[in-house]
Amino acid sequence: MSGRVTATAGVAGGLLPLVLLLGLVSTTGCTTFSARQKEAVYGPTEGVLEAVAVLRRHVPDDTYRFPPARDFSGRNVYRASLLRLENLERAEAAALRSGYMDAVIAFAKGRALERLRAFDLAAQHYRESARLSEELRDAARASAETGDRIDRAVKLGIELVDPVGEGGVPARPIDPEGVRQALDERVTQLSILLDELNEAAGRGAAAAGGDDAPPNVDRLHYRWIAQEEIERADVIRATYFVEIRHVVPDGTVVALQELQRVATRHGASKNRLRHLLRLGDFYADLAREYLAAVPPESLTFDPARFRELADAAIQLYELVGSHDGRPEKLEATRNLEAFLALTLTIDADRYDR
Fold first, then answer.
1. For the chain, what is the domain count?
2. What distance in Å separates the CA atoms of residue 346 and residue 291, rounded to the nearest whole number?
3. Which of 115, 138, 291, 318 has the most CB atoms at less than 10 Å from its CB?
């Protein structure tokens, strides 16, 4: 009996350190894995394939209807991917010296640049990728062609300029019809491209699951880019007519129509609240200009005319302010408070608050 107890004790004595050792290794391994997993969330990109994978995940995103995705740092995912690829090229210059990833990097940069409105640079990177890789050649050439078409279109007509840039803002041409025609031509070219892409998307949906998928199906994300550029052209057109409204006949009416046109044509856009807010600001500006031109104390002040402008501004501010979680809500509520404060200067018998 004593021998059996001694043997059992000996076995137990041999297993106990092993169990403790396994437990220690297991605990250490879990801690290390958890720590690495936590660090990976905030760590830099470890390789080209990781940066490309993130970018590839967000290439099909509908950035016309929804804001661009953001990474953990809060930056635009396309801009962040471009920066990471450039940083990797510098940090891993020795490993990438052979050029085995050059075509992939060039193609990925093209995808990022086109979402940052650098269409000419994107086309250059696509051509470089097509030159270096046979596998990417067809897709790269198709994307380069599409980028060139968008680049040629967006160069038609006027463009918004930096208001605080060196030399100030250049004078706008007082040529409403010429500006309208040029921007309409831009929209026409972009609309033709959009129709082609929508048709390709329809063929792709019909051929889903088969082997006869239409060519250039990888270009379908350009639909959102084309819609964004059409929206931008409409915004530029409205901005131009707002700027010149004081020097052309019926300028205020035309400017109001242009702002309403943007809000109605792009009701599905991610910027729809911004368009409504701008329209509300325009009505509020008109109300302020009316008060400056026709003081409420004067006999020529028309309460009905002022109320029409004020009610339109208030309704638009309240509409935008009803959307929780949007930055436009803060602007709308503050602008509404400021405008209502302005109405306090008007006698109650002339404007009922």
1. 3
2. 9
3. 115
Question: Each residue of 38-56: pLDDT tens digit?
Answer: 555 545 556 788 888 989 9
249: in domain: no
CB 180 within 8 A of CB 255: no
Name the residue with tokens 């051929």.
Answer: 207
Cα-based angle 299, 305, 308 (whole degrees, multiple of 5): 150
The dihedral through the CA atoms of 79, 125, 148, 52 has a sign that is negative
Alpha-carbon torsion 176, 233, 235, 269, what sign? positive
Question: Which residues, other chains included, contact 140 with Cβ-Cβ below 8 Å and sequence gap of 6+?
Answer: 107, 110, 126, 127, 129, 130, 133
Q: Classify residue 217 by its DSSP letter.
A: G
Cα-based distances in Å from 320 to 163, 233, 323: 27, 23, 6
Confirm whether 2 is domain-assigned: no
Q: Is 225 exposed, middle or buried (0-12, 13-18, 19+ CB in 10 A)?
A: buried
Q: pLDDT, tens digit, for every residue of 168-220?
A: 666 777 889 999 999 999 999 999 999 999 988 877 666 655 544 444 446 78
Q: With 0-12 CB in 10 A as exposed, 13-18 as middle and 19+ as buried, what is 24?
A: exposed
Torsion angle (degrees, nearest 10) of CA 254, 256, 257, 258: 90
Domain that holds residue 239: 174-206+213-244
CA distance 82 to 124: 15
